[in-house]
Amino acid sequence: MITEVGVIAVDGGELPLGGGLLALVRPALDRIEPGGVLAVLSKSRAVREDLPSWCRAQRHEYLGVEEIADGSDRHLISRGRFSVPLKPTEAKSALESHDGRLTAADALKAAPMPPSADPISGFAPRGAHIEPGGPSYPFTLNERDRVAPPEVAVLYDQAVSAQWDATTDIPWSKVRPLPAELERALIQVMTFLAENELSALYLPSRFIARIHPAYAEVAMFLATQLADEARHIDVFLKRARLCGRGLGISSVTTSRSLLSLLQTDDFTEAAFLLSILGEGTFLDLLSFIERYAPDEATAELVSRARNDESRHVHFGLAHVRSGLAADPNLYGRLEAAVRRRAAALHGIDGVPAPLQDALTILAAGSTQERAVAKGHEAFRQLLETMHLNRVRRLGNAGFTAAQAKIISELHTPNFM
Amino acid sequence: MSNDKSILLGAVAYDPKVVTIWEGIREHFQSEGVPMDFALFSNYERQVEELLKGHIDIAWNTPLAHVQVKQRTNGESISLGMRDSDRDFHAKVIVRRGAGITSLKDLEGKTVAVGSSDSTQARILPLYFLAQEGIDISRVKVVTFDTDLGKHGDTGTSEIDVLRALHEGQADAGTLGDLVWVNEQSAGHVDSARVEVLWTTPGFDHCMFDAHPHLSPEKIEAFKRALFAMSWENPKHRRLLELEGLREWLPPREEGYRSLEEALKTN
Predict the structure, then answer these.
(1) Is this prediction's pTM over 0.80?
(2) N- to C-terminal Cα distance for chain B?
(3) Domain A144-410: what homologous superfamily?
């Protein structure tokens, strides 16, 4: 019904204005520039009365009507200036699937993120035609370099395909009763993990509502991160409760450390403290627990949690690297954030005692003297490994060896 | 006339949104350095009286109130501005399909629903224009929906009543303003199988800011400057303009009120 020869024309036949004609006229007008002309062919006599009035109401200019052959009218409308502009906000590039797959990374390539975003565009998807005059949204993360690393869509795709089911993917039936001391140690470790993962669920959620939707892939990635943390909390608490002895201790050290994390107001600082330093350290902690896991179910759940966490670390590194590339002052800010947090946690001089003891017993596998000595050595080694890996990760993020060493040593003894 | 520096404007509170509109416009005027306050009236008759007494400086008037102010000040009141939507208003004659009305002459002997007695677009002018077309109004059974008297048709209630009467078969034809007619169609509230448009009246103009003849030139200029600074592209202004039913404020023009002046003389 729509032709594009010369002027755009729509053929409304007998349709009355209020009986469907507008569904042809309005979209056709949206396709032409203000001042451009639309021809409306009509056999409805009522349209002669109604179309000029509708044009007046919509501030389009009604140019007139003439009878053409076969008893039809041809009305001409010039599009008014108070309507949605046609200016595309992005270059149009075709999106194509490959071997039946269509990834978020492909979609991002077809509609790249702008260097900065206007809060006026609100929740309009990137590339939508924005009608002027809309309200301004309270987004504060409006610059690509502060929010969106280039690999975010790839990480999102990986995260989506790596989701797993806490109900069925863990061999829960393999859980057997353990000696009481070992069981108490395992409960304490799981309690500690769940408490820390709760903070990792809450902290990123504080930033999602601040991210401009032009960088929606970041919010989408964080949504997968939240789903990961929710699943981790779920499996850690299930494993603890399968022992039938309730939960372990939540220490003031952990509580103070996590509050200082939750109170971080800057998105990049939060990604640095949570993902690179906190979750990065957790990678070694989870490896340790997997190595000394008393059963297959425990080994499986910490191994799966570790895979998820390594994605979060990867995103944190990508985020900070892209921020550092755009703003060298960020080094100083991040170091200052670590120093501020260390000052706030002053007086805490070690890993929370209940966790330290539980990890020692878990690695010992029993309370027998020589086993405990070996367990203690394994724990001491763990702290060393954590420090070395933090320094390596900070080097990957772009810090010098000296900076990395200082920052790693200032990191919270609570691990997160 | 108020002697203080601020302009006192009168408006009729035909809907709660009137408070939102004028609070917003007052705030905009303040930001333009033009102190302004407003007084709300329940009807245009009282607003016109208070303007003539000089108790308010400017009245935001319907066409009927505007013509009354012009006449009672011997043309000395000062017109300041109008909405884009106030220009080239039309009224419509809508008919019920199956009522056997194919020309205006067919209206004689039929029941015609009209809006409030003080509604320019839904009663006064359509009946005047029909008479001009040679229709003997005394032979038309006029059914008046006299709602919201004193509001001069601002609420649109009587026009919706006219449409409902047509849909329900209580009238053979009806008169209403073009904006209500096309907006109701756009919103899908009109059943094209039951009603259709028969005729469009000649154009006429609608609301106007009327200033007291003695309002100081400084206040007049300040008012116009702040008013015309409002822009559809500004989100704060746009919200107010949407509520008030316009895209832009335009300068005044008088020729659009001739038909109403004539209609009031013949009444």
Answers:
(1) yes
(2) 33
(3) Ribonucleotide Reductase, subunit A (1.10.620.20)
